[in-house]
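Protein modeling request. Please complete all fields; requests missing the sequence field cannot be processed.
Requester role: graduate student
Desired output: 3D structure, token encoding
Chains: 1
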Amino acid sequence: MSKIKKSLHSTQIQQLQSKIIKYNFLFPIVSIIVLSIILMILFFSYAEKFKENSINDLEQDLLAKNKLMLQHRVDNLVSDIKNIDKLTKQKTKQDLKYRVNNMFTFIDNLYKSNKNKSDKEIKEIILQVLHSQTYNNGRGYFFAYNRTSGIVQTHAMQKMVGKNVKNLKNQNSNITVYQRNEKVLNNKDQEGYFSLYFPKPNNPNKLMEKIDFIKYNKRLNWVIGTGEYVEDIKHKLEKAVLKRVMVKLYGKNGYFWILDSTGKLLANPLDKKDIGKNILNLHDSKQNFFIKCMVKQAKTNSKQFCEYEWLNPVTHKVEPKLGYARYFKNWNWIVGSGIYKDDIKRDIDIAKLKMGDKLQHFYKIILVIVLVSIIIALLFSYFLSKILKNIFIDYKQNFETLLSDAIEDNRKKDQVLQQQSKMAQMGEMIGAIAHQWRQPLNAITTSIQNLKYDYKDGNLKDEKFIDKFIEQNKQTIKFMSKTIDDFRGFFRVEKEKQKFSIQESTKSVADMLNAQLQNYNITLSINNDEFIYNGLQSEYQQVILNLINNAKDALIENNIKEPMIIIEIDSIKQMICVIDNAGGVPEEILNRVFEPYFTTKEQGKGTGMGLYMSKMIIEDNMQGSLTVENINNGAKFCIDLSKDK
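Delivered output (645 residues):
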């Protein structure tokens, strides 16, 4: 009976195992089919929505891209004009200098080749050459005067010859032409450029802006020069640029046009008949005065577009159009271009067709993938059902052991990483605190050392003096304590930001250092600009403190006369700059000043961590930038807290 029961029990187990194997075989197949059908329905539904959204996004994207492309084209043309204007003026100056230097070479050669002639004879030859040498269709000429007497030796305007430049007043100035020229010649090469207003030889009654280059010839004791009239340079450039615009086309129907600020058309390759006419009041059929609109937008630099309807030169139909223009103030020009909306719409229609074809092709691929997946599932389900049970049993036995070992290994690794991170942060914090405490400790030491002299001077009997002494040192000690608190939480993510006044925060640091700076006769000034910033006030003050102290140390070390530190706050650019006149940072180390442990001070006087920690605070904690450059006779450290830096 027992054997029968065991046999029945064995049979039941076998039946149960058979059912499990059967279910293991059928369940994956049925699941894959059902899941595939559901996924296909969801996918096709999502694909249609995606197509609709993609088309909307495509329309917006293409419109935005075409607008941006139009802006870039106009901006680039204006930028090209600016560069041409700038480079031409630079080249003009170079040409002027080249011509004068060539004349000096000619004079030297003349002396060498005419040693048998007297000085007077050679000067006569030189005067003849100077008077006869003209260039640029007679616009350019040479002039010369005696540096000692000031008498003009030669000039294109004959009435100027024999006059004394010492008696000629410089236009818009109280000094004479001679005095101005002497300032220009006050350099090692005794040469230089200057601008002035002077009549043209062919129009002596009108003053015109001119660029001159002069150079002193010691042998002749003459100042020799030449120049170019700015208006001539400008007209030449304008003519070249307009000629270029008249042939500059892009795309299917893209072109540029140029107006002056009054609305007179200067260039339009597709409307040559209206060149020279005033088109300011031009409008479309809907009374959109689009020229006025673009002139206004250009002059205000709003970078906005003007919409109107105009004839498309390709389709020969009146179509909606977007216009964009920029103002070039130097030449009083309005430079613009436009795009037809229907061109963008045609591109969108083409893109829609391509997207539809791609989706249809993608649908076919998905169907094939689903069918192949079902077939593969049928083939593999049988074999998987055979080994599934054994794999599960083996996995269950080993899983807990493997999981326990893995958890223990990860726990040990986390401990090591946490300890390494903690030690690295602690080392940086200690180095930073040691550097930041040096200046406050010096301030306290100086105050204590001065007590003896204050006692002799009788100041210790003055209660206000005592209160001031205590308050100053309390502020210094309070700042030192606050430094510990701030640096202790330096690497914590949970530090909360708050809004604070840049002006007040900067001034509080300056007030704290006022006594030390006065001790070295250092003048510290802060402009009155102001802006509010949302950040970590104490860390910002640490950076300002470090920059002021570095400037102070440089001024003292270099023994600067009339030392000064200027702090400029720019609310528009969101910048704070600390400027000194300590001679600047040597160029060979300018790019290394923010490296950790790099210092130019003597051993024991600096750790090289101050600027490094300052840069970390500004860039990592305040999402700004800290830069340095040499200007004039000092260094300029700038903190940029703007969002578009």
